[in-house]
Amino acid sequence: MRKTKTLDRRQFTAEAALAMLSGVAITISGCGGSSPTAPSGGGGGGGGNAGGPPTNGVVGSISANHDHTVSISQADLDAGNALSLTLTTGDGHTHSLSLTAGQVDQIADGQRVSESSSNEDAHAHSVTFN
């Protein structure tokens, strides 16, 4: 009989981020809608350093997600500049998201940062990194 391995949220998000950064497609779907719910979508920190600074960039966790994704490359984390990001197309629309240089530095240091996306198609998303 095969034993099932259970992952906690941090382990799952780290594994999902590693898979996405290695070119493997993972689709996590959540309920659509305009009101925020628990985050769904990508995961937090990059690979190999659970709880510490990312090593391969980071993938944002998106609330009330309907097929959007967003990530920050390791090169952008290393540069530490302010960023304007675009969430990938979900349900025929995109959202934008701005992070200050200070927020990028916090994410690079493994700290949790949340920011709201632009309001498109009558809704916005909360995006959390780490």
**Structural classification:** alpha+beta
What is the overall number of helices?
A: 3
Summed over residues and divided by their number, the pLDDT gives a mean of 74
Give the fraction of residues assigned to helices.
10-25%
Please report the total strand number as a whole number. 8
> Which sheet architecture does the biggest sheet show?
4 strands, antiparallel
Quaternary status: single chain
Percent in strands: 15-25%
Describe the global form.
flat
Strand arrangement in the largest pleated sheet: 1-3-8-7
Series of secondary-structure elements, N-terminal to C-terminal = HEEEEHEEHEE
Distance between the termini: 36 Å
Poorly predicted runs? 22-50
Domain count, please report it: 1
Rg over alpha carbons:
14 Å
In short:
The protein has 130 residues and is an alpha+beta fold. It is 21% helix and 25% strand.
Task: Characterize the structure shown.
- With 130 residues, the protein is α+β, with helices and mostly antiparallel strands.
- It has one domain.
- It contains 3 helices and 8 strands, in the order αββββαββαββ.
- The chain has helices spanning 9-21, 74-79, 101-108, and strands at 39-40, 58-59, 61-63, 71-72, 83-90, 93-99, 113-116, 126-129.
- The strands form 3 sheets. The protein has a 4-stranded antiparallel beta sheet with strand order 1-3-8-7. Strands 2-4 form a two-stranded antiparallel sheet. Strands 5-6 form a two-stranded antiparallel ribbon.
- The protein starts with 8 loop residues before the first helix and ends with a strand.
